[in-house]
Amino acid sequence: MEYHGTPEILDYRNANGHGWSFFKNDGLLLTIVTTPEANMEMIRKVQKLELRNDDVLIAAYPKCGTHWLWEIVTMLRAGNSKYNKKAKDISMLGTPKSVLVDELPSPRVLNSHLYFRHLPEKLVEKKIKTIFIMRNPKDVSVSFYNHLNGVKMSFRFDGTYSEFLDLFLEGKVPCGSYVHYVKDWLQVKQNHPDLPMLTLFYENLKKDPVKNIRMVADFIGVSVTDELCEQIAEACSFKKMRTADKELKEHILTAPENWKEGHKGIYRKGEVGDWKNWMTVAQNERFEDIIVGTFEDTGIVFTYD
Questions:
Q1: Residues with catalytic function
Q2: Nearest Cα to 36, choosing from 84, 60, 4?
Q3: Is 79 part of a structural domain of the chain?
Q4: Contact 71, 131 (CB under 8 A)
């Protein structure tokens, strides 16, 4: 990734001052965590990261089940249903803490919300097993809103869901357009047939966790019993993960003190179809036109309830 000069700052806050400023690079809107220069340097370091042959990478747009899947894969590789005391933040690429990844022991379960082109350059060459998980975009919009509305950090969103939805539909949110992100990863699967890649859906994992956990185990080459898959499914149920997150985890990015008082933190509901409690009929129709319709040519069929 080349970076020259001072990037243009794009202010996409709405009339109420709610929203974010971004800078554009490599065709993408990038959130300014510190400064554009520091952000670009952070991504360059990710691209140059030395991968190990036994790494597994989880890729997902925010609020699509990254934490959930990270716990599952970590347990599968450990061969038990015990929680890792570290949160997935320790192995997340694309944050200021990405430098810690080099210090992690193998086997590593890496995770990221970055686009493919911003990930380690050796991903395809080393044939790193990559799992891409998707979630229906209506629930993503609601979950993402509640996350950004609940944090105290600089990228929080203090407006209403209606205000957030306007920005989400235009791709003017952290991590950019959901449509562009998903389509970019679908293209990766076509362009790089040598990259071992498994595609999962949040809703399928919710409906039949044992079946999907076994699918993940087979993909990463781990031998499992039905009993272990069931134990992991139980340990990774929403209620138990939320309890473990509060009582056991050592956080970096999502520590309890980073959330507004009374907010449920990273684990809010985890339900399929919660968008119906948030969207008006008119908003849903607009969502269908702007986002849902754009997936018709992909073969992707999302489950919305």
A1: 113
A2: 4
A3: yes
A4: no
